[in-house]
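Quick one:
INPUT:
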């Protein structure tokens, strides 16, 4: 336990410094808001009207997915360097690590979080459902293909 004491003290000092910095900046900062300070500012262009729409949530999902996969790649580099020395245990540990990070990625793909514009059109032209949870299921007892969402229009019901 005494080995971790310096780390705990450093963590406590960092948290205390951050909290004190926020409190002091709120107390000492001048509070004189005006319309120019409250206006959004981006790339040096002053907006003349409100934006037509907000950023979609998909933008943030893609950004967070990128960060997760980027962190995964950063952790895979050391494994690649010492792969032969780790043996079977290292292989199973990295396989579990990759599986834990790729399952949420597969979920994002299945719910369509990464489908943007033209990509959606390409995926709709593919012959079968790809990890889609809302895909229509073929029912051989249905009278017509429209009742099941044209899942298999080439097969007629018996």
């Amino acid at each position: 336990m005494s080995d971790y004491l310096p780390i705990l003290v450093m963590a406590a000092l960092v948290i205390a410094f951050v909290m004190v910095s926020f409190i002091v900046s709120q107390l000492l900062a001048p509070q004189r808001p005006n319309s120019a300070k409250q206006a959004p500012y981006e790339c040096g262009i002053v907006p003349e009207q409100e934006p037509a729409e907000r950023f979609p949530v998909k933008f943030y999902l893609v950004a967070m997915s990128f960060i997760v996969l980027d962190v995964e790649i950063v952790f895979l580099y050391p494994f690649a360097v010492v792969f032969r020395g780790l043996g079977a245990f290292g292989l199973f540990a990295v396989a579990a690590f990759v599986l834990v990070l790729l399952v949420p990625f597969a979920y994002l793909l299945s719910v369509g979080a990464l489908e943007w514009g033209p990509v959606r059109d390409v995926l709709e032209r593919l012959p079968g459902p790809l990890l889609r949870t809302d895909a229509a299921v073929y029912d051989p007892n249905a009278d017509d293909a429209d009742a099941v969402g044209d899942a298999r229009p080439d097969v007629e019901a018996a």
